[in-house]
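Thought: the user wants the 3D structure for the chain below. I'll pass the sequence to the structure tool as-is, report back what it returns, then summarize two notable features.
Action: structure_tool
Action Input:
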Amino acid sequence: MTKESQEWALILGASSGFGAATAVELARSGMNVFGVHLDLRSTLPNAQRVVAEVESLGRRAVFFNTNAADADKRAAVLSSIQETLRSRPDAYVRVFMHSLAFGTLVPYIAEGPKQRVSQRQMEMTLDVMANSLVYWVQDLMALKLMRRGSRVFAMTSSGSTRVIQNYGPVSAAKAALESHVRQLAVELGPSGIAVNSIRAGITDTPAMRKIAGALALYERSAAQNPSGRATTVEDVAKAIAALCDERLYWMTGNVIGVDGGEEITA
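Observation:
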């Protein structure tokens, strides 16, 4: 693929964790990158580092520091993307990746209302970590920014089917996310666009460190993993890049484990 590649990746959550690693890996595979992230001054260097890495690979990086779950801001980002691609009619979004990790980590049941999840917190978690996938894909399709051969990936976790302390709202969001992926896979099938969930093993990311007992979970997964170590963000990024191969167009609607065998030995 030449430096004038017209294939772009659009990654939500591009400044850290899985999103950041995938941005760099897809750039290495030849794609330019649109990144959406939400960082304050203290964490903004993370996004700047990813931009620099993408550009060092000879690809373009256009990043937006904004709230991906806000409808007006989503519209503004997509308008800017349209403008960027307008001068090149062959340019399109080859990969859309949903990797938003912003949710409430509190129990359902507690002694007082301030200690348990509220309706607002539950709805926010579902909206950001699950429903926003649908809204972004709807708009990408309406604007004709994706085409036959495009891929959609959404980051789920084993917590979608398991109980983890204080993880209930996020667990519900991950289960909903997987349901959205199945529905989108069916509805986008006639357009030739594959949609899959990626279930990574327990990985050391900023989002993981916010989960109660995360360090113990991480150490246990590393010790039990048949591969002898825990999953890394680079493992997941390489898998996503490989799943973009045009020969894998028939794989859609799946929850794909990228964990070195963690799930079958847990």
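Final Answer: Structure generated. The chain has one domain: 7-203+233-259. The mean pLDDT is 94.
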